Amino acid sequence: MKIIVGGGISGLWLAAELKARSIPCCVLEKNALGQGQTLASQGMIHGGTKYALDGALSNAAKVIGEMPERWRQALAGMGSVNLQGVALERDSQLMWSVESVTANLLGFFASKIMQSRMERIDPASEPAFASPAYKGHLYRLNEPVLKLHTLVKRFESLLEMQLLRAEVTRLIKKNGQVTGVETNQGQLEGEVILTAGEGAAALIRDAEFTSPIMQLRPLAMGLCRLNTPIPKIFGHQLGHSSKPKVTVSTHEINDKQYLYLGGQLAEDGVLCTDLVQIKKIEKTVEEAIPWLKPDIESTQVFRINRAEPYTEKGNRPDAAFVQPMAGAFVCWPTKLSLAPALADKVLDALKPETKACFPAWPRASAGEYPWA
Ligand SMILES: Cc1cc2nc3c(=O)[nH]c(=O)nc-3n(C[C@H](O)[C@H](O)[C@H](O)COP(=O)(O)OP(=O)(O)OC[C@H]3O[C@@H](n4cnc5c(N)ncnc54)[C@H](O)[C@@H]3O)c2cc1C
Question: Which of 28, 116, 136, 329 is the most exposed place for a label (fewest CB within 10 A)?
Answer without folding.
Answer: 116
